[in-house]
Structure formats: structure tokens, C-alpha cells
């Protein structure tokens, strides 16, 4: 049995060796609209007359679970299974040693703009073509909030709740004008633990699982209070009024029951499910959730996250494609990446369902097909931010450490001072 | 007596329901449409659909459930049979003569306590050099390592349970060592070998991390392949499809268990009679 | 004779030893080097010797001890629960199973499901809005416990692990129970022994070796738990559900701190090795 199999796989290997690497192999982000979009542009590219047979692009998709763990092992061990691979803003620094900088087409500046291109840069060099841009929206139930705005008999109760929990008497406001205080007051008002007559069980849902992506969602809050990872001189500034206020606001909402008690184990899927069940009035979530949430709750509207004393912010990061240093068909790969950064490719990618961050001039061409991209581009350029140090070599580890310390504070395993001391120490190690 | 049996049945039903509840709930979810999953969390299906299973069982240019199942089958067979072959001789030597008791036994058994994924990088490099990357054989070999501790433990235990007289009789006839092992000890170990095989096969079938790290296309096992189905519409988990693929992925070891359970108890009884 | 036996033993050991050296020799060697070096993904090919530095960092890390304590507690509690439940089911249901063999098949289904998937199943089943358990709790009692809060998550993962792996202990015990020669029972019954006494003084002592083995295997498996906890709740708030394996995995892949991950693994392995060697010596001493 085993012997037979040994022979079988040897034969298979011999076969593969003959045919493999004749093409350009691209490792893409599996599953979502990114995959559909990449398939569409690949088809266009492969149909071009000037693309030689040995430079045709072939796509490879693996598991979404553990994707970055596997990619890290693949790259570090010098895998030749792909020529081009996915990168994300927060992991460029970690993968850069195993990748090569690339050059983009001349059109790239005009198509994507500086902010978006910079999400794919490390050490001043371009490591990837930006494909998709991720940021956060405030999603809210228009029906519920309009009803509250119209029903003045409730405004006193709303004010009482705000005064009791936030120390400030607030009146219901339109979500487009919300500060984080308004967001919190609204969350409390729509929670049964605070207001037994609330139409929803919870006013909001915060993803508090010990997971690095949840930190990205959270970061728009401390940023609007002026929080940053470090100042321009490289001093770690995470232990600040801004972070403390933001962390405490989230904990207050958790303790008050304004977000489900299981929130400390919630990530993307759980939070969306809670919202979709109609038991949540408003939440901050990735732009990618728009169609899912709107489908389940048609009265859903989306706007940029609430504002703070320092303004309105949304955490942005990009996905893109870059060149594996161990690639076996570098010329073919470089050609494809260069083409991918042209206007033709970017627009085709957007039409097929991708979410590239495009400049106003470029997005105009498809504003009718993809009005949401106009919104994404608009928010990215007006409110988008990346923390100081969030593209460095250890950025991923910083998010990871924050997830551990901050969720510990929210769940009550440690107090705020402890969390602040720990995260400052860890971030000093990682960023300096 | 009758009442006693009624209570026994009750205990059985309660235990079976409690232990199998997530499996039952998953089975039910697999027959719900996506919109029903988010709307109706009860165990009652309003509009049963086979759509989820159809999605799972349809081969597309990216998703091939039959390929994943085949890969898992081959790798799990290597990963469960090889450890028994490797362990059986030394298990006998240890149970009878104490060979390997001081170092080899604790060394191997403790491998089970280690998260073997720490070997991911060097293994990856070694596999890349040897051409074992993304092959069923390569995956099967590392699954054999995963199963080695349990096989060793169970077989040492089994050999120790064999009455010495039976072996002595063989010795007296002047049987050579390998004949003794092959014709006398091995058959007496049959129940333990079957148990070891089942446990090993299930463990190998269910392994995820090495399957993820060491394969990309040609040898993707079903645990990893299953996760390909989870996020077929954006980042969200499609619970219905996920449930269907989990059910499909659990079927082969389940069938094995169903076929083998008779043999386990059957061989135990014959073993006992001989003893 | 002694040399012949030694030669035979070496021959009998050789398949396993050769296999281990072939597959794990290089990885082990490299891992030990990494454990004593300043290693990250960037320096895989040029690790810089750093002596005991990684070990010092591991020992000074609260997270490591928290994970060790979690694993120890989890391993002991789940092993005892599973073996107690498994023993009860095996012995109590044995008369029925003798006639209805299919019952075994029904009871071992949970352990056939991949632990990673079992974790996912519980993620759905326990979800406040999509899971049947909270759904029925709300419908019947107007209230449901939150299973995955910091206060409850340990109980929940213990329950999930116990329900999935009791069948393992059950199967081992059933085999051991059925292997007890019927004439021993008959003899006891003739003497007028009550069923409880039969179990206590005849059957249980005969099953004890299997009980030890089952406890040991279940403890190790509980100690090294990874898949089901990781897919259900991850590392937990503040690391509350970080088992030893999760600690090492996160240090290795998520934090990219390979030196520390391997130092922790080496510590774990050496400790386990010493303990098991002592136990072996102790067992040999007593028998």
C-alpha cells in the first residue's frame, strides 16, 4: 500500500516538475469578493495578445483560516509554490524580507493616489499593488433611530441615561452628527439592561475577542481622542488619556450590558449575526459587511464612525499583491503586477466586485456601478489613518499584544493601569 | 429487572443526546437556507433544503471535495497503519524485557504533549528539499509521527496483558523470535491493534495544522478543504454550508467506526475466551 | 544470551528509531538551535546564539505560567470527568450493549468529529442569536447564561471537551470490561456477591490498568488541548483560555517570537520527560 503510493507520488512529482512554473502563480485572498474580482481581471489579462503562454497567470487559493500563518511559513521557508502573494498593510513589514520591491505602471499615482499607495509601502519602497481597501463604517438601524428622534417623550429618558452613565445630559441626535459620547448614549438607551422597554436587546455590539483584527475596529475610537502608538520621536505613547478614555468607554458599555455578555468571544461573524438578528441598534464594523448587514436588516444605513475631540477617523488598511523573492518566474510576475496597477485593471477589478481605493477622478468612471466605492474613497481620504508604526516589521505583533492586554481589561482579568504598563513595555520592545 | 433496563435506556438516551448535541444541531443547520439560519435558531427546519449539500458536493475549478476526501483517506491510512508497524516490535520488547523503558518510551510518549507545529519550519524546508511538500505521502508521514505516542502506549499495554504462558508455549516449541511475534503475539493483540487503528485513523483524519502548512493544492486534506467552504461570501461564515461540509467531512471516519465497532467488541470477547 | 537479547532488542527498536531520526532528527536539531538563539522569521537562516536568554524570558513571562496552570487544571479536570463518566457508561450500559452493539456507534460519534470542527459547532450552538441552546433558554425561561464570558468560559470549554472525549474513555473501558472472563463473574455471583460489590472488588481491580492508561492519555490530551478551544474562543480575554499549545502557537506564528516559542516547548518537553521517566521507574520499582 505504502510502497505503491510512494511510486505513485514519485510519478506525480515528476509530472508536476515538467509542467509547473511555466505560468505565473498568484496566491490570492480566498473566499470573498476579492477572489471573484481577481478571477475576472486574470481572465482579461490572460486574453491579452501580448502575454506569452509561459506568462499566463494561474490563481491559487488556500484556506482563509490560518491564511497568514501559513503564508508566513511558506515565505520564510522560501516556497516556490507561488510567484505573487497577498500582503496586507499590517504584515508588509514582516513579509518584506522575503519579498522584492516592485515598480508600478506610470498610471498608478493617478489611479490610487498617495494615501492608498502608501498602504503597500515599507521602508520607502513599494512592495505591492493595492487591490482592496478596508475601513470601518458606523452601521445603524435607521428605522429605530428615526423613531427615537421623532418620539420626544423618550428624550427625557435618553437624557437621564446619558447623565447617569456618561456624566453628560445628551439629546438623541442623527448618527451623522454623533460623537462617541452620542454613540455610547444611544447604545445604552437601546439596551434592555438599561432601558427595559428598548426594542432591541442590545444597543451595540463590540467585538472584544482576543484577536488582532478586533483591535483595528477598536482603534478609530482612541484615534478620535488623539491616541497614537508613538510620537514622531519614536516614544511609545499608548499610555495616554486618549487610549484610557476609549478603553474605559468600551468597558463601561460592556459592563452596563450595552453589548452582549459573550462579546469577549465575538469576532466578525458573531457580531454580524447579532446585528442581523435585529437585536442591535448600531455598530462599528468593516465596510465589507455592508451587503450582509443590509440584506438582513434593510433599514440599515452606513456612515463614517463617530467623531471625537480630535475629529473623525476610520482605521484603514489595504490588501494587495506583491512579489515573492523566491519566485521562479519573476519577469512574468512583474509584468502582471505592473499591469494590475493600470487604470484598466483597477476599474475591471472594481466592476467585478473588488473594493480598490481609487482617486476621485478614477472612481468617477464607475460611480454608477459601485456607488459604495465613492463612499469608501471619500472616507479613506478624509478620515483614514494608520497609526505610527503600524506598517513596521512588528506591527502584527503589536496588534496581537494589544488584543491580549485590552481584552483582559474589558473582561476584568486586569485593571487599566496594569494593561497600560504591560502594553507600553511590550510595544517598546517591538517598535524600538 | 425490567425497570433497571428502562433506566439504562434512559441513561443511554440522555448521554447520547448530550454528547451528540452539537452534531445534531449541525446536521439540522445543514438543511437550512442561509436566510433561515440567521432568522431561525430553533431545531425545527421551516423549509428544508439540500442546497448546502449541493454546494459542497459540486466540483468547481477551486473546490473539489472528492479530491480532499481522497487525500485525507490516503494520508490517514499511512498515518494510522505505519505507527502500528513501527511500534509493534518495540512494544513487545518493552513489555517483555523492559527495552526502551528508560528513554525511548518517555521520549516518544511525550511527543503527544508537544504542539508539534513548532517543527513546521524545519519540516517545511526538509519536505521542500525531498519533494514531499504538498504530497499525500509527506502528510501521511507526519501524521504517523502524531500517532506514534498513542500507538506505542496502547500496544505496550496490550502486549503486557497477554498471558505469558501463551508465549512460553511458543518458545518451548523453539519458535524463532519473529515467528513468535508474527504467529502468536500479533494475533493476540488484534483487539488492541484494531483500537489503535481506529483512534489513529480518526486522529489523522482530523488533523488540521500540518494539513494547512504542508499542502497547497495537490494533497489538501478535507479538514483544510472544509475551511475553504466557510467563507464563500465575503468574510462572514456561511453556517449552512459550513455545517454541510462538516457533516460530509465526518462521514468517512464515522463509517469506519460503524463498521469496526462490532470487531472491537467481537475481538475483545474472543480475546477474553482465549485468556 | 544477554548480548543476543540486546541485539534483538536493538533490532526490534530500529524501525521506530530510524523513522524518528529520519523525520524528526533535523527538525529537532534545528529547533534546539533556535531555542538557544535570538530567532525570528527574518533570522531563520542566521540565528544568533543567545544562550539561555529565551528561557529566561519564558520563565519571566506571566503568560507562560498562566498557560501552564490553565493546561494543568484543564487536563486534570477533564481527564477525571471523562474517565468517571466513561467508566459509568461502560459498566452500567454493558448489559444493554451486549445485545445492542449499535449503541457503541452512537456513543462514539462525538470523538469522530474533528476537534477544530467541534469548536466551530459549539460556536454556532452557543451563539446568543443563532444558537439553539440560548434560543430555547430564552423561549422557555426568558433568560440564558452567557457561555463564553470570562466567568463562564472555563466551565464551557471543560464541558465541551468532556462531552467530546468521554467516548474515548468509554470505549477503552468497555473493551476492558468485556475482556473480564465471564467465569470470574459467575464465581462471584455464586458466592452471592451484590452487583455493586462485584464491580468494586472484582471488576474494577481488573480494569485498573486500563483506568490508569485512560487517565494518562486523557490528561496528556487535555494538557495539550488546542483545536477546539482555539476555534471556539481563541486565546481568550487577557489570555484566559490560553493553553500551553496555544501559548506556543501564538508566540511562534502570531508574535513571530520563534526563540521564545521553542524555549517554552523545550521546557515543556524536558519537564514531561523527567516526570514520565520517574513514573516509569516508580512503576518498575513497585511491580
Brief account:
Chain A is an alpha+beta fold. Chain A has helices at residues 2-19, 33-47, 67-76, 92-95, 108-118, 142-150, 155-166, 180-189, 212-224, 241-255, 268-276, 290-296, 330-340, 343-351, 360-363, 371-383, 395-411, 416-431, and strands at 24-28, 57-61, 84-88, 99-100, 121-122, 125-126, 128-134, 136-141, 282-286, 300-303, 307-308, 311-312, 314-315, 317-324, 384-385. Chain B starts with a helix and ends with a helix.
The main sheet of chain C orders its strands as 1-2
Helix-residue proportion of chain C: over 70%
Structural class of chain C comes to mainly alpha
- Calculate the mean pLDDT score of chain C and round it: 90
Main β-sheet description of chain B: none
Please explain how this structure is put together:
The complex is a heterotrimer of chains A (432), B (275) and C (287). Chain A has 432 residues and is an alpha+beta fold. Chain A has helices spanning 2-19, 33-47, 67-76, 92-95, 108-118, 142-150, 155-166, 180-189, 212-224, 241-255, 268-276, 290-296, 330-340, 343-351, 360-363, 371-383, 395-411, 416-431, and strands at 24-28, 57-61, 84-88, 99-100, 121-122, 125-126, 128-134, 136-141, 282-286, 300-303, 307-308, 311-312, 314-315, 317-324, 384-385. The longest helix of chain B is centred in the last third of the chain and has 36 residues, at 239-274. With 275 residues, chain B is mainly α. In chain B, 75% of the residues lie in helices and 0% in strands. Chain B has helices spanning 2-29, 34-39, 51-57, 65-97, 104-109, 120-130, 136-161, 164-172, 177-188, 190-206, 209-214, 222-230, 239-274. Chain B is built from 13 helices and no strands. The longest helix of chain C is centred in the first third of the chain and has 38 residues, at 62-99. The mean pLDDT of chain C is 90. Classes of the chains: A alpha+beta (432), B mainly alpha (275), C mainly alpha (287). Chain A binds chain B through residues 1-2, 5-6, 9, 12-13, 16, 30-33, 60-66, 69-70, 73-74, 76-81, 268-269, 272-273, 276-277, 286, 288-289, 291-292, 296, and chain B through 38-39, 62, 74, 77-78, 81-82, 120-121, 124-125, 128, 131, 133-137, 140, 209, 212-213, 216-218, 220, 224, 227-228, 230-237.
Task: Describe how the helices and strands are arranged.
The complex is a heterotrimer of chains A (432), B (275) and C (287).
Chain A: H1 2-19, E1 24-28, H2 33-47, E2 57-61, H3 67-76, E3 84-88, H4 92-95, E4 99-100, H5 108-118, E5 121-122, E6 125-126, E7 128-134, E8 136-141, H6 142-150, H7 155-166, H8 180-189, H9 212-224, H10 241-255, H11 268-276, E9 282-286, H12 290-296, E10 300-303, E11 307-308, E12 311-312, E13 314-315, E14 317-324, H13 330-340, H14 343-351, H15 360-363, H16 371-383, E15 384-385, H17 395-411, H18 416-431
Chain B: H1 2-29, H2 34-39, H3 51-57, H4 65-97, H5 104-109, H6 120-130, H7 136-161, H8 164-172, H9 177-188, H10 190-206, H11 209-214, H12 222-230, H13 239-274
Helix pairs in contact in B: 1-13, 3-13, 4-7, 4-10, 4-12, 7-10, 8-9, 10-13, 12-13
Chain C: H1 2-35, E1 37-38, E2 48-49, H2 53-60, H3 62-99, H4 102-112, H5 115-125, H6 132-141, H7 153-178, H8 182-190, H9 195-223, H10 227-232, H11 244-254, H12 258-286
Antiparallel strand pairs in C: 1-2
Helix pairs in contact in C: 1-12, 2-12, 3-7, 3-9, 3-11, 4-7, 7-9, 8-9, 11-12
Amino acid at each position: 500500500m505504502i510502497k505503491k503510493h510512494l511510486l505513485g507520488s514519485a510519478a506525480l512529482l515528476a509530472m508536476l516538475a515538467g509542467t509547473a512554473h511555466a505560468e505565473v502563480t498568484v496566491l490570492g485572498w480566498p473566499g470573498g469578493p476579492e477572489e471573484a474580482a481577481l478571477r475576472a481581471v486574470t481572465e482579461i489579462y490572460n486574453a491579452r495578445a501580448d502575454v506569452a503562454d509561459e506568462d499566463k497567470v494561474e490563481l491559487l487559493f488556500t484556506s482563509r483560516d490560518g491564511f497568514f500563518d501559513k503564508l508566513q511559513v511558506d515565505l520564510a521557508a522560501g516556497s516556490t509554490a507561488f510567484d505573487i502573494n497577498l500582503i496586507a498593510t499590517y504584515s508588509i513589514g514582516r513579509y518584506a524580507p522575503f519579498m522584492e520591491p516592485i515598480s508600478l505602471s506610470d498610471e498608478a499615482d493617478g489611479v490610487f493616489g498617495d494615501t492608498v499607495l502608501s498602504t503597500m509601502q515599507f521602508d520607502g519602497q513599494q512592495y505591492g499593488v493595492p487591490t482592496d481597501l478596508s475601513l470601518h463604517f458606523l452601521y445603524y438601524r435607521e428605522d429605530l433611530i428615526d423613531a427615537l428622534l421623532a418620539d420626544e417623550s423618550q428624550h427625557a429618558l435618553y437624557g437621564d441615561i446619558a447623565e447617569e452613565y456618561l456624566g453628560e445630559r445628551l439629546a438623541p441626535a442623527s448618527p451623522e452628527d454623533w460623537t462617541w459620547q452620542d454613540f455610547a448614549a444611544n447604545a445604552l438607551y437601546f439596551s434592555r439592561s438599561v432601558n427595559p422597554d428598548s426594542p432591541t436587546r442590545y444597543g451595540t455590539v463590540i467585538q472584544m475577542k482576543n484577536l488582532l483584527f478586533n483591535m483595528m475596529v477598536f482603534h478609530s475610537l482612541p484615534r478620535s481622542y488623539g491616541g497614537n502608538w508613538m510620537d514622531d520621536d519614536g516614544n511609545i505613547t499608548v499610555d495616554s488619556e486618549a487610549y484610557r478614555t476609549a478603553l474605559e468607554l468600551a468597558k463601561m458599555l460592556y459592563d452596563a450590558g450595552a453589548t452582549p455578555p459573550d462579546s469577549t468571544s465575538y469576532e466578525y461573524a458573531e457580531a454580524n449575526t447579532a446585528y442581523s438578528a435585529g437585536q442591535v441598534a448600531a455598530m462599528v464594523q468593516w465596510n465589507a459587511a455592508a451587503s450582509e448587514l443590509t440584506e438582513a436588516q434593510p433599514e440599515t444605513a452606513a456612515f463614517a464612525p463617530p467623531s471625537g475631540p480630535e475629529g473623525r477617523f476610520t482605521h484603514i488598511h489595504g490588501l494587495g499583491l506583491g512579489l515573492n523573492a523566491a519566485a521562479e518566474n519573476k519577469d512574468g510576475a512583474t509584468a502582471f503586477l505592473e499591469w494590475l496597477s493600470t487604470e484598466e485593471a483597477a476599474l475591471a477589478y472594481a466592476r467585478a466586485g473588488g473594493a480598490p481605493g481609487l482617486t476621485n477622478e478614477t472612481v468617477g468612471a464607475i460611480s454608477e456601478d459601485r456607488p459604495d466605492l465613492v463612499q469608501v474613497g471619500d472616507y479613506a481620504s478624509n478620515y483614514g489613518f494608520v497609526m505610527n508604526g503600524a506598517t513596521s516589521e512588528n506591527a502584527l505583533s503589536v496588534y496581537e499584544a494589544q488584543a491580549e492586554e485590552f481584552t483582559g481589561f474589558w473582561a476584568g482579568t486586569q485593571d487599566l493601569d496594569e494593561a497600560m504598563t504591560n502594553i507600553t513595555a511590550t510595544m517598546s520592545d517591538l517598535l524600538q | 429487572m425490567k425497570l433497571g433496563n428502562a433506566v439504562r435506556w434512559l441513561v443511554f438516551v440522555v448521554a447520547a443526546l448530550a454528547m451528540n448535541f452539537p452534531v445534531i444541531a449541525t446536521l439540522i443547520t445543514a438543511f437550512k437556507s442561509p436566510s433561515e439560519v440567521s432568522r431561525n435558531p430553533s431545531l425545527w427546519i421551516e423549509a428544508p433544503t439540500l442546497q448546502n449539500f449541493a454546494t459542497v458536493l459540486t466540483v468547481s475549478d477551486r473546490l473539489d471535495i472528492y479530491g480532499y476526501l481522497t487525500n485525507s483517506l490516503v494520508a490517514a491510512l499511512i498515518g494510522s497503519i505505519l505507527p502500528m508497524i513501527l511500534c509493534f516490535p518495540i512494544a513487545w520488547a518493552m513489555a517483555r524485557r523492559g527495552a526502551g523503558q528508560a528513554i525511548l518510551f518517555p521520549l516518544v510518549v511525550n511527543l503527544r504533549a508537544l504542539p508539534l507545529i513548532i517543527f513546521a519550519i524545519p519540516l517545511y524546508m526538509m519536505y521542500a528539499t525531498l519533494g514531499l511538500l504538498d504530497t499525500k505521502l509527506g502528510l501521511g508521514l507526519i501524521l504517523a509521527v502524531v500517532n506514534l505516542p498513542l500507538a506505542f502506549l496502547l500496544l505496550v499495554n496490550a502486549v503486557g496483558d497477554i498471558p505469558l504462558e501463551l508465549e512460553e508455549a511458543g518458545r518451548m516449541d523453539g519458535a524463532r523470535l519473529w515467528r513468535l511475534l508474527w504467529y502468536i503475539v500479533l494475533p493476540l493483540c488484534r483487539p488492541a491493534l484494531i483500537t489503535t487503528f481506529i483512534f489513529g485513523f480518526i486522529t489523522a483524519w482530523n488533523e488540521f495544522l500540518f494539513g494547512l502548512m504542508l499542502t497547497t493544492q495537490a494533497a489538501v486534506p478535507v479538514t483544510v478543504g472544509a475551511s475553504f467552504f466557510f467563507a464563500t461570501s465575503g468574510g462572514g461564515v456561511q453556517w449552512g454550508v459550513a455545517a454541510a461540509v462538516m457533516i460530509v467531512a465526518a462521514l468517512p471516519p464515522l463509517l469506519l467506526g460503524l463498521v469496526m465497532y462490532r470487531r472491537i467488541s467481537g475481538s475483545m470477547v474472543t480475546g477474553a475466551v482465549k485468556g | 544470551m544477554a548480548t543476543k537479547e540486546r541485539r534483538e532488542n536493538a533490532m526490534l527498536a530500529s524501525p521506530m528509531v530510524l523513522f524518528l531520526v529520519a523525520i524528526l532528527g533535523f527538525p529537532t536539531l534545528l529547533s534546539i538551535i533556535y531555542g538557544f538563539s535570538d530567532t525570528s522569521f527574518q533570522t531563520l537562516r542566521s540565528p544568533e546564539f543567545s544562550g539561555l536568554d529565551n528561557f529566561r524570558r519564558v520563565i519571566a513571562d506571566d503568560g507562560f505560567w498562566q498557560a501552564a496552570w490553565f493546561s494543568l487544571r484543564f487536563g486534570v479536570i477533564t481527564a477525571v470527568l471523562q474517565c468517571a463518566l466513561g467508566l459509568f457508561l461502560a459498566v452500567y450500559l454493558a448489559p444493554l450493549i451486549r445485545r445492542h452493539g449499535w449503541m457503541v456507534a452512537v456513543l462514539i460519534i462525538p470523538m469522530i468529529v474533528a476537534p477544530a470542527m467541534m469548536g466551530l459547532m459549539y460556536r454556532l450552538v452557543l451563539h446568543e442569536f443563532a444558537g439553539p441552546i440560548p434560543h430555547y433558554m430564552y423561549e422557555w425561561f426568558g433568560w440564558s447564561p452567557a457561555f463564553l464570558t470570562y466567568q463562564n468560559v472555563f466551565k464551557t470549554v471543560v464541558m465541551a471537551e468532556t462531552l467530546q472525549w468521554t467516548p474515548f474513555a468509554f470505549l477503552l473501558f468497555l473493551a476492558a470490561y468485556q475482556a473480564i472472563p465471564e467465569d470470574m463473574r459467575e464465581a462471584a455471583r455464586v458466592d452471592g456477591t451484590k452487583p455493586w460489590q462485584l464491580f468494586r472488588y472484582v471488576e474494577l481491580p481488573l480494569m485498573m490498568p486500563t483506568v490508569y492508561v485512560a487517565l494518562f492519555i486523557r490528561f496528556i490530551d487535555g494538557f495539550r488541548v488546542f483545536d477546539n478551544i482555539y476555534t471556539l474562543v481563541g486565546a481568550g480575554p487577557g489570555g484566559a483560555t490560553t493553553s500551553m499549545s496555544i501559548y506556543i502557537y501564538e508566540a511562534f506564528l502570531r508574535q513571530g517570537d520563534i526563540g521564545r516559542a521553542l524555549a517554552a516547548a523545550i521546557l515543556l518537553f524536558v519537564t514531561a520527560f523527567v516526570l514520565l521517566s520517574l513514573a516509569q521507574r516508580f512503576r518498575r520499582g513497585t511491580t
